[in-house]
Amino acid sequence: MVRRDAILFFLIALAYRALFLLETHSEPLFSILAIDAQFYHDLASRFAAGQYGTEPLWYAPLYPVLLMLLFRIGGTDPQVVVALQFVLGAGTAAVGVLLGSRVSRTVGRITGGVLALSPVFVFYENQLLYASLAVFFTALFLLALLRAMDAATTPVRARALGAGVAFGLLLLLRTNAL
Questions:
Q1: Rg of the chain's alpha carbons, rounded to an integer?
Q2: Which of 6, 14, 166 is nearest to 98 (CA)?
Q3: Which residues of the chain have pLDDT under 70?
Q4: Which CA distances in Å does 27 have to 19, 40, 80, 138, 143?
Q5: Does the global pTM surpass 0.85?
């Protein structure tokens, strides 16, 4: 039942994000890269061209490196990144259902609904900003950590490793997460 709820809220979140794209695709406000988003785009474009520079990297390195990889594969169109961030945002809703369901099925559904339908999350996922990935990795870390802490979970080491990997990825996105 809980997995079915997670799939349902994943699909609801995807549909909501698709509706957002349909409604905003011709709006200039939603297609302009501003400040941090433009910086990440420029930095990842430089990295993709093999120009790494010598100056220190002031931002957590994972996001521009992920963008660089995506730019090398599919070009520098921000919409490809936005689509992937929307899928991760829908994944966050599914993970939220799993987290909330540890309390009760109702809490899981409420958590999934909030994460699926929050306009704030959708707005950030529509930008080239690491916030949507940070929310996803935080939820994934919490789920993996809680599962590793369950006495009935086997093997605990593998689940603890999963929590560590999720936390490590979160730290590469948001260095002050610690």
A1: 17
A2: 6
A3: 29-31, 38, 52-61, 151-159, 171-178
A4: 14, 22, 18, 31, 37
A5: no
CA atoms within 13 A on the CB side of 65: 8
* CA-wise closest residue to 43 among 67, 69, 8: 67
pLDDT at 12: 96
* Cα distances (Å, whole numbers) of residue 74 to 46, 51, 123, 131, 172: 15, 18, 23, 22, 23
For residue 80, the model assigns a pLDDT of 81
Under 8 Å between Cβ of 17 and 101? no
User: How far is it, in rounded angstroms, from Cα 176 to Cα 173?
Assistant: 9
For residues 132 and 122, give the distance between their C-alpha atoms in angstroms, rounded to a whole number. 9
Q: 34: buried, middle or exposed (CB in 10 Å: 19+, 13-18, 0-12)?
A: exposed
